[in-house]
Structure formats: structure tokens, C-alpha cells
Amino acid sequence: MVISSIDLKDGHVVQLKNGKDLVLQRDDADKLIGDFNKYGEVAIIDLDAAMRNTDEKGNTKNTALLKSLLRKGNVRVGGGIRDVKKARQLLSLGAEKVIIGSAAWNSGRKSAEDPILNTAFLDELTSAIGKEHVIISVDAINGKIALKGWTETANIDLIEGAKAAEKYAGELLFTCVEKEGCMQGTDMSMVKSLRDAVKCRVVAAGGVNSLEQIVELERLGCDVQLGMALYTGKVSLKESFISCIDWDKVDGMVPVIAQSMNQEVLMMGYSNREALEKTFETGKLTFFSRTRKTLWTKGETSNNFLNLVKMRVDCDRDTILATVIPEGPTCHTGSWTCFTTSPDERSTMERLYGTISERFANPKPGSYTATLNDKRVREKVMEEAEELTEAEGKDEVIWEAADLLYFASVLMYKEGVTWQDVYDELDKRHKEK
Prior knowledge:
Elements: E1 2-9, E2 12-17, E3 21-26, H1 29-36, E4 42-46, H2 47-50, H3 63-69, E5 75-78, H4 84-92, E6 97-100, H5 119-129, E7 134-137, E8 140-141, E9 144-147, E10 152-157, H6 158-165, E11 171-175, H7 188-197, E12 201-205, H8 211-220, E13 222-226, H9 228-231, H10 237-243, E14 254-259, E15 265-271, H11 273-282, E16 286-289, E17 294-297, E18 306-313, E19 320-326, H12 349-361, H13 374-390, H14 394-414, H15 419-432
Parallel strand pairs: 1-4, 1-13, 4-5, 5-6, 6-7, 7-11, 11-12, 12-13, 14-19
Antiparallel strand pairs: 1-2, 2-3, 8-9, 9-10, 14-15, 16-17, 18-19
Helix pairs in contact: 4-15, 12-14, 13-14
């Protein structure tokens, strides 16, 4: 599958040829990550950090922008990550994986007897965050590992280095530097040699310029990281996503599981190529009816549409997980999901928050929520917190905790804070420990 790349330099989104010559520059990173994340993971690379263009605190002109993007998609981040502290910080801020480049290698290697890797650093890193969160760059120039923003090479053979690096990484990212940004296709023989040499996930980058090559790499068992081909319109993410599904295996009809933003499974249906194309074009989940032999968009008669947020394929490329925002019940029976009999969404903090938002936006006669001003809601939070501390027995604690969470949600709404913001902060604290 395709991983879209957002390369940052001097506070802008850029694309460089051979890692040095500016080809394009733009300033719509928020829009880009929203578009890219619909189809797959997103790689964000701080080129200035990779080139050591940092201030005394280790920040670059891209730092603020990069941090703002980390929780807006399934993000992997790279560029200048040279210590465990920074890696942990990036994960705590929302990155799912970190890409380690020069810091992974023994740049001073002179002979075959010298170590290939910076094992002291990698041992500490994997111990701290787990190898599943680590991607090691095996970027190469003429078959040798490229370092320091691709400005020099080490005396390390690509395949030899990849075999050693696999021990410390959940996946390897290979960029054929000579091909990077040139739109002439990548070095397929080198990618194949790399794929044959290691067992972990391999992502190929650098020069990939066509849907045909993406599919060829997919058939080799490699994912593709794209930059220039996307920005120039040479390759379509929609076509790439659809083409990388194993259509032969699923006999032209791929299962699609729909889940809510809260990861509640809503329904399952089947889609062919045309149905997926319509889903991406309209933003509404569309299936193929095997009984009626025709396309159908969920909600086309009931108006209970499933609005697409993103799609992901499984590891075998034969099942799709679609994250959606439902407009009303999903099941034709009127149930919220096809796997329950309840007509309502299950209770969550997000559902409570949504109800509170609706009450303030469209006050109903007699609505208690709509009467709560800033002063009163703060008083109620303090009052309910005290009552919770004084509660005795399970039932009383449940009752008072529910009251406190309700008033806390109202206060959060008034301050523009969502439950996801709170979850993100808790996740950040967990990963910093």
C-alpha cells in the first residue's frame, strides 16, 4: 500500500530532487494530511532536523508544524531523531512510529571487522519504546548506506546493513537516493534484493512514478512511500489503494467492515472496484449488492449514510476496515449496529459530549444543559467532586461519578476541549513514563 510523504523544510511542505534541489513548495500541510490519511499512513519528515539545522534546543523551523500534525492521522515521523528522549517525545505527541536514520549506523566503519550499527543507541531505543515502533532507514547511494541527510555514505553495504538492522526494527525504509524526486522509477532489482534478504516489512521510496510500479512493488511484498508522484498528480492515491487489493484472492469482491470513530463495529458488506471508487468520490460508504447485482450506497433510501473518514487494508490485502461517521442507525432494522438490537449508540464520553454540544447549539424548551453558564458549571463541578469523595458503596459512587463526568463535559465544551484532547494528554503522559 502507499504511504504518503510530507517533507518539511523552513516551515514549508517541499519536494526535493536527489534530496537537495527544491522542486516544489506549498503551505497546506493540514489539508494534505487530511487527504492522505484517508488512504493510508502518512510519513512526516523534518528535513532541517536531518541536516542538523536546529537551534540550541534542537528545534527547527518545522517543529511547531510537525507537532501539530502528529495526531491528525496514522503518522510515522523522521528526520534528525538521534536520541531516545526525542523518540519518546514524538511518540507521546501522537506519532505511531519513529524513523531512525544516521543515528542507527556506525558512520566511522572502516573495515568488515567494525560494527555496522550503533548498537548502544538501538538497544536503548528498542528497550524504551519497543522495536515495533521503530523504522530504520536503509537509504542508499550506489548500494551504500547514505547518512547525514544523504550528504555522505558509510562503508556499509545496503543488504548487509539491512540484515543487521532488522533485529532492531519493525520495518525498514529504503530510499534509492539517486532516483529520489527524479520521477524515473525506482531501482527494482535493488528493492527485490532487499525484500529477499529480510523478513520484516519493507517500504520502498525514491523515484516511484507510476501505478504499474506501485502494483509491482506490492506484488513483491513491499509498501511504497510516495512524494513527488503524488504532488505532481502522476499517481492517484485512490487508484493506488484500489489496485493494491488482492482482487484475485477475493474473486473481485472485497469484504468491508465499517466501524465508528469509537471503534464500534457497525456493519459488514462487500465492495468491488466500482463501489470503492464511488466511496472515495462521494465520501459515503458504498457497497455492491450480491443479491441485486448493483451498487448501493448505505443510506440512499434511509438517509442514514456512513460518511468515510479513512480506509485501511489488512496485512493480506483481502479485507478493508472503513472508519466512518454514521448519520443515524446503521442497520435496516433501526438498530445502531447490525450486531446489536439497540436503536441507540452505546454510551461513551464522546456521545455525551455530542449531546451537550447539540443542547447548546439548538436549545430545547426545558433543557437544563442550556441554562448552565460558566460560573454555574464550575460550581457544579466542585459540588459533584465533593459528593463523589463522600459517596459510600458502589451504587452511590456510580451515581456521583456520572454527575461529575456530565458537568466536567459541559465545562470542557465551554472551553473548547474535547474528550479526544484529554485522551491525547493521557496517552502523552503514558508514553513519557
